[in-house]
Design a protein that fits this description.
The complex is a heterodimer of chains A (about 300) and B (about 400). Chain A has about 300 residues and is an all-alpha fold. Chain A has helices at about 5-35, 35-60, 65-90, 90-115, 125-130, 150, 155-175, 175-185, 185-190, 195-220, 220-235, 240-270, 280-295. Chain B is about 75% helix and about 0% strand. The chains are: A mainly alpha (about 300), B mainly alpha (about 400). At the A-B interface, helix 2, helix 3, helix 4, helix 5 and helix 11 of A face helix 5, helix 6, helix 11 and helix 13 of B.
Amino acid sequence: MSGAEFVPLSLTPLLIGMFAAVACALPGNFLVLRRQALIGDAISHVVLPGIVVAFLITGTVAAWPMMFGAAGASVVAVALIEAIRRLGKIEPGAAMGVTFTSMFAGGVLLLEQSDTSSVHLDVEHALYGNLESLIWLDAVGWESLWDPVALAGLPDELIRIALTLIGVVAFTWIMWRPLKLSTFDEGFARTLGVRTGVIGFALVIVAAIAAVAAFDAVGSIIVIAMFICPPAAARLMTNRLEVQIAWSVVFALVSAVLGYVFAGFGPMWFGANNAVSAAGMIATVSGVILVLAALFGPCRSRTGAPVE
Amino acid sequence: MLWDALFLQMGYNATLVAIGACFLGVAAGVTGTFLFLRKRALVSDAISHATLPGVGLAFIVMVLLGGDGRSLPGLLFGSAVSAWIGLLGVSWLTRRTRLAEDAAIGAVLSVFFGFGIVILTVIQTMSVGRQAGLEGFLLGSTAGMLWNDAVVIAAGGALTLAVVLLLRRSMALVAFDPEFAAASGINVPRIDLAIMALAMAVTVVGLKIVGLILIVAMLIIPPVTARFWTDRTDRVTLISGIVGGVSGYVGAALSAAIPHLPTGPIIVLTSFGMFILSLLLAPNRGVLAALLRHLSFQRRVHMRQGLLALAQGQPIYEKLTLRLLERAGLARADGVATEEGRARAAKALRDEKRWELVRADQAFESAAALYDGLREIETVLTTDQIEEIDRRIGGPMGVPA
């Protein structure tokens, strides 16, 4: 495949997929270790009511209001889960289940009630995104990477997800010590003066931002997959957090690239001529990686760890 | 319009949907109770998302075999198989690797769902796939429900319910105390699997009406709601079944009566409404009850402190204390005790002294354990015991004769 074909059609979706995967996998490491993996699931469900409300308020399908709406909905969901858990003395899993299903139902209801026929906003799109359509029409080949005119035509999603990725990396980098401490030994971290509650909340917020930015580009299903599968697989490879994060980034990148390639070109190898959903394929590949890690990972078993 | 719907006057399809949703709600509420009590409510999320590839693959297989591809029993069978594989995946990941259950749930959920979407896009490219309408399984669609579909749903719900009734004792035992259950000869892993299988059955049956994303709500919200009202397992199960049934029925009726109300979401929101009401209003565990309890506790503390202050001749500055004493006719607005107030205050002070002796005496250990600074001593000791304490305190001393 030549640059003239690859750069406009495949480069940007591939980059967006890779950035989204890494942006989700980084906070995912901490969520998995803190046993909050399903926060990602909850966030990705409540994104829908968030963007619908943002649409109803602004009346347009613009990216920024929707991202604010989605981030707001995530904060509301986290607060609601906490409120239900404390006020009703309900176990966290059930509180989460009550909250995100109800908010999602509310989102679907609002969507059906409001007149969105004129704009492109539907549940299916929210679930599996539209990675394949994020093409870079202004590019003519590799040389476009140095052409400012063509660069101006890059899809906005690419820029947003790249900024988000930088933000997520910065957060992990700056907060590394307190994050690591409060994840493994919350009591000890508190004696050192780390404000563990704030750190925990900040982690959820960063996860929400990553989820919303990735959701914007690739749909919510890939978000959950990337939050959980690469970190979980990496967890089975090593006992060191640094190495685990490196593995999770590698797994996320491999899932994104292979998933995109299989989705785009896999059907052709079987003689079909239509591509399948890239987001779904990326999630599938990450699952295969997790299964391989669970079968052959060097640190897969629980031996040595305290028995639960 | 709404009454028509509630009394099944909306026509054939709406009636079918309402009855089907009611059956489904009861089955889901009852089954979900055990899932919730076992603290594994979110496993249902993995199960429901894991049905998607099964639906798609069943459609493909049926089409390849020359069939219609849309036969509901076939699709449900496919979804059951893939949900079962997903369930085994969750338990395999949790038992064989060091991953916690939430990570396993999330992994299975997202991977199966992603794979399901790949299958759906494959179906869209098949020549017969365009009119498949399999997206309906995501959020449920009741528009084209047929008599046969309703029968499948009702029969599945009834069967699930029967199995739950049969296994309810061992499931409750396993949910509350797995070790004791194992010691009593119950095969705990098998019962666990049975709970999951029942949840799976409800999920599969409910796919058509509420869709796979929202069926989780029908398994989780009713038991959580029911839990507010009672502490007994059998009653939680019963109330949960009722909540599920009512929300299914009312939701389906509402969606038939009002345009643009999709059935699945409105059923979920109906049960969420009941959840919120229970959260606020339930006796004992509700927020309102807790608030009232707090206020009455606050009043008792103020009353007691006020009486002690009156007895010792100290001025009362706290506004609430003064207001409470005044309202009870124990003090005047300027803080001076009335006749009755003086009597009550003297009694309060004497009770303090009595408690002091009770708490110092080993013989009254069990009574002293009930001391919380507010409890009336008469509710703990008999008159004889109080008389004995009073003898020890003795009459007034150091008073010039």
